[in-house]
Amino acid sequence: MSDKVYGEYPTYYKQPIRWARYHAHTKPHFFWSVLLGLSAPVLLLATPLRRKYLYADHEPIPNVYPLPTRQRDQNLTGYDDE
């Protein structure tokens, strides 16, 4: 019985697709972390293209409640729910 998990170890420069598939099966955590790391520059370039062709950024959420632009009512006493 063989101790191999997924066939013989392929050589990168001779069979790069088989080499990537081998590592996707035997070490998926390394494979996906490298794949996500290599996709970061693509995502950085895609953001300006998204803003130009697809949709713009959303309006920022307000941090405070908007105050009215009128004079304050001087006759108020207590709370409004009384």
Task: Tell me the β content.
Answer: under 5%
SS element count, helices: 2
Q: SS-based structural class?
A: mainly alpha
What is the end-to-end distance? 84 Å
State the helicity in percent bands. 40-55%
Mean pLDDT, all residues = 82
Radius of gyration, in angstroms, nearest whole number: 30 Å
Largest sheet: none
Order of helices and strands: HH
Question: Got a strand count?
Answer: 0
Q: What overall geometry do the principal axes of the alpha carbons give?
A: elongated
Uncertain regions: pLDDT < 50 for 5+ in a row? Answer: none
Provide an overview of this structure.
With 82 residues, the chain is mostly helical. It has a domain at 28-53. 46% of the residues lie in helices and 0% in strands. It has 2 helices and no strands. α1 (16-26) crosses α2.
What's this entry about, in short?
The chain has two helices and no strands. It has 82 residues and is mostly helical.
Secondary structure blueprint with pairings:
Layout: H1 16-26, H2 28-54
Helix pairs in contact: 1-2
Features:
single chain; 82 residues; mainly alpha; 2 helices; transmembrane helix; Nuo9.5; NADH-ubiquinone oxidoreductase 9.5 kDa subunit
